[in-house]
Amino acid sequence: MFEISTVSPSDVAGREAVRTLLQREGIRLDTHLDYTCAIYDERRAAIATGSCYANTLRCFAVDHAHRGKGLMHRILTHLMEVQKQRGHAGVFLYTKVSTAFFFQKLGFHEIARVPDSIVFLENQAAGFPSYLKKLQDETPRGYAPPISALVLNANPFTLGHQYLVEYAARESTLLHIFIVSEDISFFPFAVRERLVRAGTAHLKNVTYHASGPYIVSQATFPSYFQKDEDAAILGHARLDIAVFQRIAAALGITRRYVGSEPSSHVTNLYNETMTQFLPETNIECRIIPRKEAEGAPISASTVRRYIQEGNLAALASLVPPSTLAFLQSDESAEIRRKIIQTADVVHY
């Protein structure tokens, strides 16, 4: 009784049973899942469920009538075994504030929380402290404020990114660049990091960091707690701020720069949220207007669209020479092929 079953993507009935259980518990089925399991009753109704995405756990629920039977513990134990088989020692979990205590009793440690919304936890007590220590070890000493920060995905690095970095570096004694290290982009992290470093090598007050699993991208942020897309954006921004506050305290960061995105509702709402809430943590937030080319903001999406169209000649006005050289090289052939074969290359 109460056996755990894997719910495959092709199991329509099983996924619908999971969706029904989650809805009863006020949770939406996350769009970013790569493994789901469930426990069913004799009527094949899901009474407990949990899922994974990469090295994160999400979408936990137990039917109200079956609580107190240890079902959540069994689901969690099963998913941790899945993560072990994947080779993930560090595992991260998102949950409601009301259920965070349960996972803390089972060995998870809080990283940050948004009051009345979401708690971000990990299974390793030394995980986030070790990450902060690594950032400190990567940081040169002896700089007084203003010390600033930028978070870049750079998919790929453009003249717009370069302009934003140069702008922030001019106004700072030291600028920390956090490069999103999740490999969810057309350009792998190793390539994006190389292009960021090459395009900013002329700046002497810049230091670089991999974002690691703590600066969470919009693509992998769990939106299933929120009632709609705007609420999800707000929740992501608030959690970003809660995590970033601890990073800033460790590195003496007093200012964060972001680029404007006139055509993106997602980015605009995210920026507005940071502008509102970052100052409450004694961190200034500055939104910098985008650099333009031929009357339009320079964006990585435009670069990818030109690549998709095979118009590499148009890239010279959008990317630094180092990025252009890479895009014209044989090394980038596979990346260009994937972009050409993808229907939608515009991401925010």
Question: Which structural traits does this protein have?
Answer:
single chain; 348 residues; alpha/beta; seven-stranded mixed β-sheet; five-stranded parallel β-sheet; 14 strands
Structure description:
The chain is α/β, with parallel strands linked by helices and 348 residues long. 38% of the residues lie in helices and 20% in strands. The protein has helices spanning 12-24, 71-86, 100-105, 127-138, 159-170, 189-199, 229-251, 265-277, 300-309, 321-327, 333-341; strands at residues 4-6, 35-40, 46-53, 56-62, 92-96, 109-114, 118-122, 147-152, 174-179, 206-210, 255-259, 284-288, 292-293, 296-297. It has a seven-stranded mixed beta sheet, with helices on both faces. The chain has a five-stranded parallel beta sheet with strand order 10-9-8-11-12, sandwiched between helices. Helix 9 packs across helix 11 (333-341). The chain is globular.
Helix and strand topology:
Elements: E1 4-6, H1 12-24, E2 35-40, E3 46-53, E4 56-62, H2 71-86, E5 92-96, H3 100-105, E6 109-114, E7 118-122, H4 127-138, E8 147-152, H5 159-170, E9 174-179, H6 189-199, E10 206-210, H7 229-251, E11 255-259, H8 265-277, E12 284-288, E13 292-293, E14 296-297, H9 300-309, H10 321-327, H11 333-341
Parallel strand pairs: 4-5, 8-9, 8-11, 9-10, 11-12
Antiparallel strand pairs: 1-2, 2-3, 3-4, 5-7, 6-7, 13-14
Helix pairs in contact: 4-7, 7-8, 9-11
